[in-house]
Amino acid sequence: MPLIRTIQIDPETRLGVWSIEEPESFFRERVHISPGIHHPHKRLQHFAGRYLLVTLFPEFPLNRIKVSESRKPLLQCDSFHFSISHCGDHVAAIVSTKAAVGIDIEEVKDKIERVSHKFLSPDERDFIDPRHSLPHKTICWSAKEAMFKWYGLGSVDFKENLVLQPFVYQPTGFITANFVKPDSNTRLYLQYIMENGLCLAWTHPV
């Protein structure tokens, strides 16, 4: 079973990372859903993400997931809050029974460097470690993606609305951030892990 990482964040919150090595049939036998996805790999990612949810919380009601107008999957009953992220052959998920959460998994790629001016403010660019520019910026991008998923309502400017406090580059660490919009001004706390060319970042329930 390629569940390569699980973290018990608190008594009500768990996350996991799955390395997809199984064929689609493996998940179809265990996850009884019918996704309207035609691309084979995207469909495989979808099945793996749903299977990871019930791996983390066996009582998770998969058949009650709906997709909001902002394309965020959710449970209208709010019995579980969750977030899923896919990256190549990896899928990550976080589930909490107490509060909204967000997660993101990213590969460290040069594209992040090329588009960093679109999601980093001048103050954020100032704290980037020039010796580790690409992984440091990847962590910032992944953290902001996790914040975006935590919010779940779309229409977010990554540079203006998602504000990271300075943090020193290291393979694992914590980030303090502010989500700033007229309808939500919230201090968020995130954690990240950089390992084997992948960055995993998630919000702690607040």
TrEMBL record:
Residue intervals of the 4'-phosphopantetheinyl transferase domain: 100-162
Domain of life: Bacteria
Keyword set, alphabetical order: Transferase
Listed InterPro entries: 4-PPantetheinyl_Trfase_dom, 4-PPantetheinyl_Trfase_dom_sf, P-Pant_transferase_sf
GO molecular function: transferase activity
Family designation: Belongs to the P-Pant transferase superfamily. Gsp/Sfp/HetI/AcpT family.
Protein name: 4'-phosphopantetheinyl transferase superfamily protein
Provenance organism: Chitinophaga qingshengii
